[in-house]
Design brief:
The complex is a heterodimer. Chain A is an alpha/beta fold. Chain A has one domain: Aconitase, domain 4. Helix content of chain A is 31%, strand content 17%. In chain A, the strands form two sheets. Chain A has a four-stranded parallel sheet, with helices on one face. A three-stranded antiparallel sheet of chain A has the order 5-6-7, with no helix packed on it. Chain A is globular. Chain B is α/β, with parallel strands linked by helices. Chain B is 31% helix and 18% strand. Chain B has a five-stranded parallel sheet with strand order 4-3-2-5-6, covered by helices on one side. A five-stranded parallel sheet of chain B has the order 16-15-14-17-18. The chains are: A alpha/beta, B alpha/beta. Chain A binds chain B through residues 10-11, 13, 15-16, 19-21, 23-26, 38-39, 57-58, 61-67, 69, 84, 86-88, 91-92, 95-96, 142, 151-154, 156-157, and chain B through 24, 37-38, 40-41, 44-46, 49, 51, 66-67, 71-72, 74-75, 78, 122-124, 126, 138-143, 145-146, 149-150, 154, 188-189, 192-193, 219, 222, 224, 279, 364-366, 383, 385-388, 392.
Amino acid sequence: MPKAHVYKRDHVNTDEIIPARYLNTDNEAELATHCMEDLDVDFVKKTQAGDIIVAGEDFGCGSSREHAVWAIRGAKVQTVIAKTFARIFYRNSIDCGFYLIELPDVFEKIKDGDELEIDYKKGLIKNLTSGNDISFNPLPNFALEIIADGGLLNHISKK
Amino acid sequence: MAMTITEKILARAAGKDKVRAGDLIDANIDIVMCHDVTTPPAISMLKEKGIDKVFDPEKIVVTPDHFQPAKDIKSAELHKRLDTWAKEKKIKHYYKLGRAGVCHALLPEQGHIRPGEVIVGGDSHTCTYGAFGAFSTGIGSTDLAAAIATGQLWFKVPESIKFVLNGKLGKGVYSKDVILAVIARISTDGAIYKAMEFVGETLADMSMEARMTITNMAIEAGGKNGIIGFDDVTKAYLDEHLTDKKDYTVFESDADAEYESVEEFDCSKIEPMVALPHLPSGGVAIGECQGMEMDQAYIGSCTNGRIEDLRIAANIIKGKEVAIRTLIIPATPVIWKQAKDEGLFDIFYDAGCVISAPTCGACLGGFMGILAAGEKCVSTTNRNFVGRMGSPKSEVYLASPATAAASAVEGKLTDCRKYI
C-alpha cells in the first residue's frame, strides 16, 4: 500500500530534489537514483513504487529544471501532497502529466508512514492508517485536460 | 479599464484589448532563450513526438552556459545535442563557445531584449529581462519545447505587487542589497505566482546592470516575473545594444491599475546585506554577521557578473591580497574583454584571484569552484540552498560584489564601507 514520506519543511527546493551536479544528464532513470538526495539521502532506498511525498509550503521552489519532476516521477512516486507549490515546479508537473495535490492542513492529516489511497477523480484521500477521509480540491480544468492528454506536447499536438 | 504594465504586455501578446489578473491566455512569444541544461531534453521531446518545426529560427537565442566549456563527458554530450540541433534548425542567434556567455547577461548585451515583448527561457532567472519593461519568465523543458515549436504558451495573468523603492542608497549599498532586503521582508514565497513591479526614485539612479540584479532575483521571492518601467536609462542602453530589430513598444502601468498589495521601502536605510544559509530570504545587515570566517569568495553569475560588478570588486581589491580563494567569473566574453582592457584582470591577478571563462560554473554547483563539506562561500550569486555550490554540508552567503570583495580581502564577512 502506498506510504507517505513526510518532510515537515517549507521551501523544499529543486536543488534538494535533484542537485545540479546530476544535471549533466536528462535520463529519468538515472535522475531517479538521486531523487531528494540532499534532503534525505535514504529517500530512494526507502521509497516503493506508488509512494507519496508530503511537504509544507512552496514545494519545488528554485530552478526551472524539469529534472525535479522527472526525478520524482522516475522514482515511481505517484504524487506530491504539499501546502503550496512553487510556480515553475507546479507548471512543469502539469506539463509532464504529473498530478499534484494542494492541501493546506496536510501535516495535521497525514503523518510519516501513513498508508494512503487516493481517488483523483473524486478528490479524496483515504488515510488507511488514521481511518480519516481527506478531501482536496482537484486541479483546475485546463490542467486536468493537459494531464488527461498525457502532458502539454500531446495536448498541443491534438489542438 | 486600468491595467498594470504586465497586464498590458500580456494583452498585446494575446491579441486582446485587455486582460485582467486571473485570465488564462495564449500568448505569442517574442524571444525564446535556450541553454545547455534544459534545452537538450526539450529537443529530445520534440523529436520523440515527431514535431520537427521551429516556430521562428530568428526568435530563438541559444547559448550554452551552465556547464560550458564542457565540464565532463555527459555535459559534452548535452552540448553536442544542442549544437547539432541549432545548426540543423539554422538558429540565427546561436552563441558558440568563445561568444557564449551566462544567458541573462548575454541576451540584453547582444540586443535581444526589447521593452513590451514576451520572453521565455528554460531557466528560472529569465525574469531578469523584466528590467527592460518586458514580460519575462522562466519555464521548464516541456514548455520550452512547446514554445520552440509553436511560438505560443498558455499563461495565467498574474496579480501584481508594487514595490516602491524610495531614497538614495548609502555608500557601499547596491541594488543587490536592495533586492536582498526586499526578499528578507516578504520571504521566498512572498510573491508566489505574482508579478513584482518595481517603481520609485531609487531605480532612477540605477544603471540597467544594477536594475537587472533586482529583477533577476524576483524568482527568489517566488515571483512569476519582475518588471521595471522604461525610462531614459533604458533607452540609452537599448540605443547602444539593439542591432537586429530596433523598434519596440513601451507600456506603462495606469495610475489607477489594481495591485494585490504595495510594499514601500526607504532604501536610504538599507545597509550592505548578507543572506545567510539556506534561503535567499535570510538577509541580515552586515553588522549582524561580520567577522564570520569564509573559505571562498565567488564574484560572477547572472546576478552580479557584469562589468559594473567587476569594477566595484576591483576597486576594493586593488593593491591588496585576498585572504581566501577568490574566483572572478566575467559573465560574457564582451565583459571579459572589457575587464581585461580596463586593467581589472591585473588588479585581480595581483591580489591572487583566479579569473575564469564565462560560465554559470559553481553558482549552481556545476564546476569551477565547488565547495567541500564544512566550507563557507561569500557569493554574488542568487541562491544559497543546501548543497547549491557543492557539498550539502557547505554554506553559501549571498552578498553584493562589494561585500564579497571586502570579505575576500579579509577572509571573513566584512563591511565593504571601510574600503570605499
